[in-house]
Amino acid sequence: MVGQVKTVVKEWGNSLGLVIPKDVALKEEIKPNDEVFITITKKNTLEDFFGRIKGKKIDAQKAKDESRRIWKME
Fold first, then answer.
1. Which of 6, 49, 62, 63 has minimal Cβ neighbours within 10 Å of its Cβ?
2. DSSP label at 21?
């Protein structure tokens, strides 16, 4: 079993789809119509957060609270 695989969500008609890399599919012997289980964790990093506020003057406590919210530490 593969631990983690990085992939990108793509539009597929009115839905969203995930592409399983070929090397992973071969290693895990995944074929079309196989049932698989996935765990989804959206990438949210402090770099993403601080990139959005770059150049703005904000209260340090508000920045700390927002970073905790992003990381679900509250």
1. 6
2. P
Average pLDDT in the chain: 79
- In b/e form, how buried is each residue of 13-50, taking b as 16+ CB within 10 angstroms? eeeeeeebeeeebeeeeeeeeeeeeeeeeeeeeeeeee
pTM above 0.90, yes or no: no
Distances from the Cα of 8 to the Cαs of 18, 23, 33, 43, in angstroms? 6, 16, 20, 11
Phi/psi region, residue 73 (left: phi>0; alpha: psi -120 to 50; beta: rest), is alpha
